[in-house]
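Predict the 3D structure for this chain.
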Amino acid sequence: MPELVNYLREALLAGDVETTRDSNHGNAAAFAEGREGYVFGLVPLKTWTLPEVLAVMAERVGIDPDPGRSTGTDIIDPHKTVRALERMRDRLRLAARRRERVIVATGHPAGIIEVHLAIAAALRAAGCELLQPAPGAAFDGPGRYASREFPLAVRYIGGVAVAAERGIALWHTHSPDGMRAMLAELDQQRQAPPDLVVADHGFAGAAAAAGLDVVSFADSNDPALFIGEAEGRVSVTVPIDDNVQPQLYGPVSDFLLEGVAAKA
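Done. Predicted structure below.
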């Protein structure tokens, strides 16, 4: 474990990450205001003030809880990252043992998708069924990333759902509408919902809002899933910089998948 803590710091996945204090503070304020692009489709069960949001983020991520400081640097506590990874690993091991039906999805097709791909491959190797509903289904992208000429659509890469534009580009998205389309198709086909969803951003938020078992990843400037965890609606949220170079996530995948299945 000390080796992983050190690695997280060295790779800037945790510790002195590049996500700034103004981003953490500003996004926490936007979430407290209920702005659509920051809620991830998981409307909180109560009104959260900015100091309350920052207090949860300090507890679960390690950022500064001071609502009066909005500039400078901030951190992700790597020890908190490892503890959350351990809890996610336990849930993945259970899914593998039970051969559960699983959806894996990410709004970060150029970053932490590396971990999602490894999880999808390992669960498939363990005998789990990777669900891939609604391929090609169009959906909107509300919030900060909505100004596109064309709508996004669900596309699967290695069994992982991502957001694609016209089949020629993959996009970063916070939208919950892709997961909503996926779950709606399962319902229309009278298929049972997944036993587990491994996701981030709006893919995770919409699944949690639907009452599904969700384990997720989130950066220090994305409070929605940490608040969801605090409210008992998200099983695990791992604090980690979710958009560094994809190859840097390899040791994270190795740690997560220990005891799950042989790496594919």
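The chain has ten helices and nine strands.
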